[in-house]
Design goal:
alpha+beta; five-stranded antiparallel beta sheet; globular; binds adenosine-5'-triphosphate; Protein kinase domain-containing protein; Prot_kinase_dom
Length: about 180
C-alpha cells in the first residue's frame, strides 16, 4: 500500500497527502480500502461469446494498435465498446490465436473497478475479437503528451488506482503477473 510505504520511509509530507486523500494503513480501523468483490461472469463460453453481427462498426474509429491487432471504438447493444480485432494477416497464426485465447480466458475471470472490464469475445468466427468497456479518457501516455506533467495529487490518485488494480491481480484466486505495465 502506498501509505504503508510512505510510513515505512517516514515521508511525513507524503503521509499527510495520502491520508488527506483517504489513504488507510493496513489494519487501521481493522481494514484498508478494499473494493467489495463482485463475482466475474461465469467462465462459460455461452455467457460471453458475441455474435459478430451484434457489433456495430458504422461509426467506428481506430483508437490504438496492439501487437497483434487494432483497437477500434464501436457500439455493442447501444454501448460504446473497445474492440480489439486480430489483424487478418495474423488470423491464421497459431501463436497469435493461442495468445488471444489466453487473454480471453484470463480476462473473463476478472472484475475490478481499476481493471478494464471484459464484456465478451468473438472466438468462433474470424476475425477474432475481444470486446471491453471503452475508456474515453485515452491512455496515460497521450494524457502526459497533451497536458504535461501531472500535479502531485492527480499523480497520487492515478498511482493508487493502478496499485489497487495490481493488488487485485495479485490476490487469490486469480494470481496474475502483469509483466507489461506501461502508460499506453
Ligand atoms: N478499452 C479501451 N478503451 C479505449 N482505448 C483503448 C482501450 N484499450 C486499448 N485502447 C487504446 O489502444 C492502445 C493499445 O491497446 P493495448 O495496449 O491494450 O494493446 P496491446 O495489444 O495490449 O498492446 P501490446 O500487446 O503491444 O502491449 C492503448 O494504448 C489505448 O490507447
Amino acid at each position: 500500500m502506498p501509505l504503508a510505504d510512505a510510513e515505512g520511509a517516514k515521508r511525513l509530507a507524503m503521509i499527510e497527502l495520502l491520508k488527506s486523500r483517504g489513504g488507510l494503513s493496513y489494519g487501521q480501523n481493522g481494514s484498508h480500502f478494499e473494493p467489495k468483490p463482485v463475482p466475474p461472469p461465469l467462465p462459460n463460453k455461452c455467457d460471453w461469446e458475441i455474435e459478430p453481427g451484434e457489433l456495430d462498426f458504422s461509426n467506428a474509429n481506430l483508437v490504438g494498435k496492439g501487437s497483434f491487432g487494432e483497437i477500434v471504438k464501436a457500439c455493442w447493444r447501444g454501448t460504446p465498446v473497445a474492440v480489439k480485432r486480430i489483424l487478418p494477416s495474423l488470423s491464421d497464426d497459431r501463436l497469435v490465436i493461442q495468445d488471444f485465447r489466453h487473454e480471453v480466458n484470463l480476462l473473463v475471470k476478472l472484475r475490478h473497478p481499476n481493471i478494464v472490464q471484459f464484456l465478451g469475445a468473438v472466438t468462433e468466427k474470424k476475425p477474432l475479437m475481444l470486446v471491453t468497456e471503452y475508456l474515453r479518457g485515452g491512455d496515460l501516455h497521450q494524457h502526459l503528451k497533451e497536458k504535461g506533467a501531472l500535479n502531485p495529487t492527480t499523480a497520487i490518485n492515478f498511482a493508487m488506482d493502478i496499485a489497487r488494480g495490481m493488488a487485485y491481480l495479485h490476490s487469490e484466486p486469480n494470481v496474475v503477473i502483469h509483466r507489461d505495465l506501461k502508460p499506453r
